[in-house]
Amino acid sequence: MSATNDRRAMRLGRSTRRQFLIQSGAAAVAASGFAATLRAEAQAAKASIPDDILYTSATRLAAMIGSKQISSVELTKAYLARIEAVNPKLNAVVTLCAERALQEAAEADAMLAAGKSMGALHGVPCTIKDSLETQGVRSTGGTTGRTEYVGVRDATVVARVRQAGAIVMGKTNTPELTLSGMTTNLIFGKTHNPYKIGYQPGGSTGGGASIIAAGGSPFDIGTDFGGSIRGPAHFCGITGLKPTTGRVPRTGHIVDYGGYFDAFQVVGPLARWSEDLELITSIIAGPDYLDAAILPAPWTPASSIDLKKIRIAYYVENGSAKPCTPETRAAVMKTVDLFKNLGVSVVEDCPKDLIKESHELRNALSTADGREWVKRMLAKYGTMTASPVISLVDTPRAPTPEFTRLAETFDANRSKFAQWFAPYDLIIAPVNPTPAEPWPDQPKALTPPPGNYGYTPTYNNTGWPGSVVRAGTSPEGLPIGVQMIAKPLREDVALAAAAFVEAGTGGYQKPTI
Question: How far apart are CA 457 and CA 453, in angstroms?
């Protein structure tokens, strides 16, 4: 047995609580096929997930490997070949570790032949956002000071999916420090949308969303600071989950824990099919006792939710000066109608004044120190020239009394949001007013026009969990997603809703790339 196999066997033999949860609880999630046992009669329907190994779910791939219908080596080779075929057009995967991935796949097959399994993702290949440190693999975070940096340890979430048996094939593109909605940087350049080359995939987890949609990876681990999981899921027609702030450790992310903006950053999964989101989040969640903000919160399965009993608020327009396209409105209303037809209590309700206040307060707080918090990160990583897509506008510094007033007002806004949400269990809203847009010739950070409020940052400000599922298509053939926001630590509601909407709309559709 190789030294690597020895280490894997030692990990397998440790009777830790996490391994128990991964190998039993999470494996049970995989075996159940996520929403198959939903209580409500109408919820028994599921999306038609294809058998094609490049377009099916990670959950099903794990089951295929476990039943020896396919080997991990065969599967990993197929995904690496797909990356090789589509990545020259997409520029989504920026660093490959193919040789290591194939070696680990062979080890996974050998373990399975010996009657052993590492967990619920045993032998399943994946990709990881380049902002998450990955041991032995270049991990740049899109900043030039780390152009050749090789990770010395795995970020907590990377370690957890690997301990559950996942095999990392490579790293996916991100804007510098993840601080932009445009996935481009000075090291690797632009990533493209697989539904229309020359169009953006969203950001900051744009590389992961692009390669998943193109059939080059079953899932990716991304991050969401202001919509960086939900936006790319919408633009690329896949599904994603922003967990509750405090659910998943940020340790090992290029913008990790700590500081005033700590609460905005969340780590979560992206995949083609919603059944994978619960499986992966249940594996990566929970304290690592490094990120002090993470709660030892219980995980409730989505199968326990009776959607007929929930209460829903929805809105299309959020008070922003930029209106939604007719197709975006149609996607939201199609989602609303699915729940109405189920007999769910659904009302139109939008706290436009609170959204406006939340947006303006976050902008004021983000610039109160003249963007010194961003400049400190660039200096920390040795970056001398910053990408033009991240904002370094030298705004006037707010005096300390003004900063503390802003912080107090921001928390008061969060309290008012909680009071508004109290009568409901779920919010249905657009992810963005438009589908993906073309790449500009020279991407750069733009100051949002006055009165333009995004749909996603609001729920980074509140810290609430949210899922995204494709629910429509633009006239150009570009995907349109909807987001479903639940109360804190109620990912079960957001995930049950995602599975239901996916079944009703069809969810992911294969691009022609």
Answer: 9
Distance (Å, whole) CA 284 – CA 287? 9
What's the pLDDT tens digit per position in 395-445?
A: 789 999 999 999 999 999 999 999 999 999 999 999 999 999 999 999 999
Note whether 446 and 318 are within 8 A (CB): no
Segment holding 492, helix H or strand E: helix 491-505
**Which of 362, 366, 373, 371 lies closest to 458, judged by CA?**
362
Q: What share of the chain is helix, strand, coil (3-state, %, to 5)?
A: 40, 15, 45
Angle at 245 between CA 312 and CA 392, to 5 degrees: 110
The C-alpha angle 507, 418, 336, rounded to 5 degrees, equals 30
Q: What is the rounded distance in angstroms from the CA atom of residue 149 to the CA atom of residue 131?
A: 11
Length of the chain: 513
Whether pTM > 0.90 for this model: the answer is yes
Query: And the tokens for 422?
Result: 């109290």
Give helix then strand counts, H and E, for the chain.
Answer: 16, 11
Catalytic sites, residue numbers:
129, 204, 228
Token duo for residue 268:
């979560």
